[in-house]
Amino acid sequence: MRNVIILLVVSVLVLAGCPVPAGTGGGNDSVDCTETSFAAIAEDAGEILGSFIYLAQSSLGDPVDTLKIEFAGGAPSSGSIEIEEANYSTCTTCVRIDLGCDGSLSNCTKTLLAQGGTLVVTSTGAAGDTFSGELQNVQFVEVTIDGTNVSTAVPGGDEVCLPSFAFSTTIQ
């Protein structure tokens, strides 16, 4: 009976698009994480040094949390992008959350790097156009990032899941 209940719970989670905690028999084991949300009060997007960057801030004061989507090589095309386990130094589409940053958006207390999920870009273009889309079922792990941009998972660090985050801003 216990196995039937576990199978039923796992089936509901999979059908709902939620990550299945590791070891529950849901096929590909995913990150066992704490569900979170992100509320943006300020957003910006644009090209910087050959990369296209979207930045959302949780506040305009100190401390501030940020959510950043970075595309190496410029603006993305519309469509779905699967976020794969990656190192910050090698990812071509990087999604990260920085927590407890100062007013200059640096000196953050914690960094979370996406290791799975989906990014759907619904609108993109050049300066003056709208950049919009949604992050879906993204799993993050706490990392440190060194001076060469190599990320290392923090042993026993936070594991966080973001079920959904919709964004829309004018490209600068």
Number of strands: 10
Measured between the Cα atoms of the first and last residue, the distance is: 57 Å
Q: Main beta sheet, described? A: 10 strands, mixed
Fraction in beta strands: over 45%
Global structural class: mainly beta
Count of separate DSSP helical elements? 1
Low-confidence segments, ≥5 residues, pLDDT <50?
A: 1-29
Rg value: 17 Å
Mean pLDDT: 85
The share of residues in helices is: under 10%
Q: What is the 3D shape?
A: globular
Number of domains: 2
Task: Give the SSE string.
Answer: HEEEEEEEEEE
Entry summary:
By secondary structure, the protein is mainly β. 8% of the residues lie in helices and 49% in strands.
Describe the protein in words.
The chain is mainly β. It has two domains: 1-30, no CATH class; 31-170, no CATH class. The protein has one helix at 2-15, and strands spanning 34-35, 42-48, 51-57, 64-72, 79-83, 93-101, 110-123, 130-145, 151-153, 159-170. Strands 1, 2, 3, 4, 5, 6, 7, 8, 9 and 10 form a ten-stranded mixed sheet that branches. β6 (93-101) and β7 (110-123) form a beta hairpin. Residues 1-29 have low confidence and may be disordered.
Task: List its salient traits.
mainly beta, disordered N terminus, ten-stranded mixed β-sheet, 172 residues
Give the topology:
Elements: H1 2-15, E1 34-35, E2 42-48, E3 51-57, E4 64-72, E5 79-83, E6 93-101, E7 110-123, E8 130-145, E9 151-153, E10 159-170
Parallel strand pairs: 1-10
Antiparallel strand pairs: 2-3, 3-4, 4-6, 5-7, 6-7, 7-8, 8-9, 8-10
